[in-house]
Amino acid sequence: MGSCRLCPLRCGADRKLQAGACGAGADILLVKYGLHPYEEPCLSCQNGSGTVFFGGCALRCVFCQNYALSRAKTGKRVSARQLADVFRELEERGAENINLVTAAHFVPQLLEAFRLYRPKIPVVYNTHAYETQAALRALDPYIDVWLPDLKFCSPKLSARYTGREDYFAVAYPAVAFMARRRPDIRDGKMYAGCIVRHLILPLCTDDSLRVIDSFAALRSEAYFSLMAQYTPCGEAVRYPELTRPITAREYRRVRGYLEQSGIERAFIQERTAASEAFIPDFSERGPLF
Ligand code: SF4
Q: pLDDT by residue (tens digit) across 12-36?
């Protein structure tokens, strides 16, 4: 925490004194937790995925679908002990798994929480994949299901929308690491494995096809999850091409390419998922959905 080099930004912030470029200080920033019914069916299953949302993010997607969280504008500082209690509570409420959403900037605190309480249900690590290999190796013994995004191939696109030209150069080896996890699905529930997500963006379908090719080139047993829920959020208003959901034509092009790709393990979201109703409610009170 003294001179943080935890994520690929390696900003060197002294997090005991000030927030790093990810917006995180020394304490865990916990925004909300609850049972999530809209993850992939093998994760949400019957009772919902026990999702834990953290504040801050090292990857600053302008269109972030969880903008207030990623910019660390909301949340409560908690200790590793309190986070471990959240794991236990979700488990007692019948969560199918513990689903950690964008926690890359809290890896040491996560490891401490796991030492205090190791969940008996699968642990899912939900990430933008802009991760160091060292962080993934440290987490590996505690994670059952890796759930990375593969957002872009094009350095030009990732620079425009995240400020990081090196997104693919960092994320692809990270995804390759996670995709090695062998799948274990029984009675429709994923106990172990990897699901690589890709969100189709307006006017970016060429890049989506390259993402599909890159995933196929891994020749892994991982699942691919095509997401069509893009809804203009955050700073999207400053990017004219991002101010609308994807069109039926864009959706058909990417979906058709995936279906022809030979990738057999895939989840495909319908375009009707592009609705604010599928974005969790992050206000302090009330349920997630
Ligand atoms: S985790 Fe945050 S503080 Fe640490 S290097 Fe990355 S951006 Fe900087």
A: 999 999 999 999 999 999 999 999 9
